[in-house]
Write a structure and sequence with these properties.
The complex is a heterodimer of chains A (about 80) and B (about 750). Chain A is mostly helical. Chain A has one domain: Non-ribosomal Peptide Synthetase Peptidyl Carrier Protein, Chain A (Orthogonal Bundle), CATH 1.10.1200. Chain A is about 55% helix and about 0% strand. In chain A, helix 1 packs across helix 2 and helix 1 (about 1-15) packs across helix 3. Chain B is α/β, with parallel strands linked by helices. In chain B, strand 11 and strand 12 form a beta hairpin. The two termini of chain B are about 55 Å apart. Classes of the chains: A mainly alpha (about 80), B alpha/beta (about 750). The interface of A and B includes residues 35, 38, 39, 42 and 59 of A.
């Protein structure tokens, strides 16, 4: 569930097909996403999932599944 | 004679009846097993389809970590497999039962009864489901203890309901093979001795066998104990320490429905892989699943993410091979010191001093202002509750700093956005660009904070040894070895290299465990430690913090140490470290392995006056053989191997002091005899001719032993005496020692 939404957000930012994105897709290598794309991803995830992503944690996001796990953790922490 | 024939007739009928009952149960079990297999295949298929877990990897777990994962892993397949395994186990037991259902019988008359109950004792129990009659009692059942502990006459046993007293009117032993009664005898003490002597005269087996038929009273007391949290056994060579420890495990897996242990609750710590392999058959033979077995280095590797850890064998090899006696002595002192309780106290003081002296706090800035000063951070840490682990306290400190950061983040973001708006190029992406800057500066910030909230244990350990005055200040009231400054220098030098030395690895693991704790393996309920004398207090402290809820069975022999000297006070240290409510030390003084001649010869390497009580078995007197040259001596060794083979000995060991010597001997002899070289970390069945370093022979036994190089250069010190004692007591039937040049003064 979370994964599909994150993949969709990323696909929109990177202007690609969300079908091509898997959990192990690397944020910087596979899609050439740069720092600003990651900032966008963070902003959009915060809006979509209604959570706060702390900026000092963002450097740990290596793959899509890292983002997904973080979102899930923040959502469960909130409820 | 008539009465013997009558008895024989009765016993044969009884045997056939028992086998018939077992055969019927076997067919039923096989049918059930097939059904279960079918349902596993169906469930596996389902699992493969919707999970990435590989079943084959899960069920062939070798590593310690995987084993733990495995024990925590629960899904429908593992449940079904567990059921299937239970059924397969039952089938194996029934097959064994049909081959040889029991080995003993006692007739027991309860005090308030007049009729004798015939109790047949075997590897497992057999009960007729319909009539509920017990055809065979498991050797671990309460009533079977009477067989091990009493002769005919008054006896008692502990049943769940309490003490049961009565009379033993008959004690009988059987030899049953392939369902046929070969012979039986009514056992008084002398006949049992003869029976045991015959068994002990047999060749050594490639893997250790069970001893259920011959468990001695004092061994039985250890095996059946359920009360003691820390069971320590000091036993002379060949007293059956390892067997007792493993049978105790089997007993714990059998006893009591509520407290029964599963194989995943138990951990056996073996001295090396060869030994691990040697004992791997005992529990399956007893009808139990094998338990997890590891060597200590694997435990260290699971705590320390360091690639090159010097193993104990490598350490021994290095120490035993070094030509410089002073350096050898330094290595020995260093290992003893770093394994000692004194050093653990120093490490503990060091840990207490970390927040005050060794953590590099720094001022934390955010949004252009100082957020919190290093002095404030240090004060906060010093005032923090010391009951929490240091790691926990540091995590709290980090969270505290981040909370302060988060409070100011919104203001900071506004500033960053204004800044971006003033720049060109990002007109349409102000929010994202500002966020990008915030992410960047937050990453720098967190890395700066983690420099002091995360511990670099290796670096801290280096620092401990980097300043002698500081080291001595931590050791104020402690007794230090004379060569402590040399130890510090040596350690400093070693810590600059890649990898960790044998004696530094446990110290570093201790430092890590004491600062950050460990929760992975807390489910372990019973830890068995074999060759206990080869570990130091710090090893026991590590086990204690990793398996805090476990009970321990610790077996060893303080006369079989390598590179250090211990006495019985060693066990007091262990007891102090584990600090269990109920602990005891049992001594096994009777040896069963060697012939009288071999044991008498071996005890010359122990302190004068040391007496081993040997089970009386005769053999050849060990000989010390010499030749004027090495090639001539090699010929004698080859000839002795041939003699041993003629005598039909199946396992023959050529024991050398070190691996280096073993390799040299192997290279000289390889063309002449079919021998196998055994080096560290090897595992093989013990059948054939082996050339091996002494430390790999620990805990093992061979039909014949040839001790090589017993010359003045190889064996001269007190420590070397222990080595010779270990080497000589590996032999069951035949022992010879070989040297050229000058004979060792110890012989």
């Amino acid at each position: 569930m979370v994964f599909e939404k994150v993949a969709q957000i990323l696909a929109e930012i990177m202007d690609c097909d969300s079908e091509d994105i898997g959990p192990e897709t690397e944020l910087t290598v596979d899609y050439g996403s740069n720092a600003i794309d990651i900032a966008k991803l963070v902003i959009e995830c915060e809006k979509k999932f209604k959570i706060t992503i702390y900026d000092e944690d963002v450097y740990t996001f290596r793959t899509v599944s890292d983002v997904v796990e973080y979102v899930e953790k923040m959502r469960s922490g909130r409820s | 004679m008539d009465s013997y024939l009558e008895d024989r007739d009765y016993e044969e009928k009884r045997l056939n009846l028992t086998i018939a009952v077992a055969t019927a149960q076997l067919s039923a079990a096989r049918l059930r097993s097939q059904e279960k297999m079918a349902s596993i295949i169906a469930a596996k298929k389902e699992l493969m389809e919707d999970s990435s877990h590989s079943i084959s990897n899960l069920w062939s777990a070798d590593g310690f970590d995987q084993l733990v994962e495995l024990s925590q892993y629960a899904n429908p397949v593992s449940h079904k497999i567990a059921q299937y395994e239970m059924e397969s186990n039952k089938i194996l037991l029934l097959e064994k039962m049909i081959d040889s259902p029991y080995f003993a019988r006692i007739d027991f008359i309860l005090d308030e009864s007049s009729a004798a109950r015939k109790v047949y004792i075997g590897l497992s129990s057999l009960k007729d489901d319909k009539s509920r009659e017990m055809y065979v009692f498991d050797w671990r059942s309460p009533i079977a203890s009477v067989f091990y502990r009493f002769g005919t006459g008054k006896a008692f046993y502990q049943a769940p309901a309490g003490k049961i007293t009565g009379q033993v009117s008959l004690k009988r032993q059987y030899e049953i093979k392939q369902g046929k009664l070969e012979y039986f005898f009514d056992a008084d003490v002398q006949i049992i001795d003869q029976f045991l002597r015959n068994l002990l005269s047999q060749n050594a087996s490639p893997k250790m066998k069970t001893i259920v038929e011959t468990i001695q009273r004092e061994q039985d007391v250890i095996i059946r104990d359920m009360e003691i949290d820390l069971m320590m056994v000091q036993g002379v060579a060949g007293s059956g320490k390892t067997s007792v420890a493993l049978h105790r495990v089997a007993y714990l897996m059998y006893q009591g429905l509520s407290s029964r242990l599963s194989h995943n609750d138990i951990l056996v710590i073996s001295p090396n892989t060869l030994f691990e392999r040697y004992i791997s058959n005992v529990l399956p033979q007893l009808g139990e699943s094998n338990v997890n077995s590891i060597i200590f280095e694997e435990i260290l590797r699971s705590v320390l993410p360091i690639e090159h850890l010097q193993t104990r064998n490598q350490f021994w090899e290095g120490m035993l091979c070094d030509d410089d006696p002073e350096y050898r002595n330094l290595l020995k002192c260093s290992a003893k010191f770093k394994g000692s309780t004194q050093f653990m106290e120093i490490l503990q003081s060091f840990i207490n001093d970390l927040p005050n002296r060794w953590i590099d706090y720094s001022d934390v800035y955010y949004d252009g202002k100082i957020l919190v000063s290093r002095q404030l951070l240090k004060d906060k840490m010093i005032k923090a509750n010391k009951a929490s682990l240091l790691k926990t306290r540091l995590e709290r400190l980090e969270n505290h700093i981040l909370e302060l950061v988060h409070q100011q983040r919104q203001g900071r973001m506004e500033k960053l956005e204004k800044y971006i708006m003033r720049q060109s190029g990002y007109e349409f992406e102000v929010e994202a660009a500002a966020r990008m800057l915030s992410i960047h500066e937050s990453t720098v910030l967190i890395k700066q904070i983690r420099k002091f909230t995360e511990l670099d244990h290796l670096e801290l350990y280096r620092r401990l040894f980097s300043n002698k005055d500081y080291f001595h200040s931590l050791a104020q009231d402690l007794e230090l070895p004379d060569c402590i400054d040399d130890i510090i220098d040596l350690t400093c030098k070693n810590l600059k290299k890649d990898g960790l030395n044998y004696d530094d690895a446990p110290a570093l693991a201790f430092l890590k465990l004491e600062t950050q704790g460990y929760t992975d393996y807390q489910g372990i309920k019973q830890v068995v430690i074999d060759e206990a004398q080869d570990y130091n207090p710090i090893h026991y402290a590590i086990l204690n913090s990793m398996f805090p809820k476990a009970r321990y069975t610790v077996v060893g022999d303080v006369d079989q140490t390598i590179g250090k000297q211990e006495d019985v006070s060693f066990y007091e240290q262990i007891a102090e470290i584990f600090d269990k409510k109920k602990s005891t030390l049992v001594t096994l003084e009777q040896s069963f392995r060697c012939t009288n001649e071999i044991l008498t010869y071996s005890t010359r390497f122990l302190d004068p006056g040391f007496e081993v009580n040997n089970f009386n078995r005769k053999g050849d007197t060990p000989a010390v053989v010499t030749a004027p040259s090495r090639p001539a001596l090699d010929n004698l060794i080859v000839a002795e191997c041939a003699t041993c083979k003629e005598m039909d000995y199946k396992s023959i060991a050529l024991i050398c002091k070190t691996e280096q010597d073993a390799v040299a001997l192997y290279e000289r002899l390889a063309a002449q005899i079919d021998a196998k070289l055994i080096t560290s970390d090897m595992a093989t069945d013990l059948s054939g001719v082996f050339i091996l370093p002494l430390y790999m022979a620990k805990g093992l036994e061979f039909d014949a032993v040839l001790v090589s190089d017993v010359d003045k250069d190889h064996y001269q010190s007190e420590d070397d005496k222990n080595l010779l004692y270990i080497a000589c007591t590996r032999a069951l039937h035949r022992l010879n020692l070989f040297y050229s040049g000058e004979i060792s003064p110890l012989l």
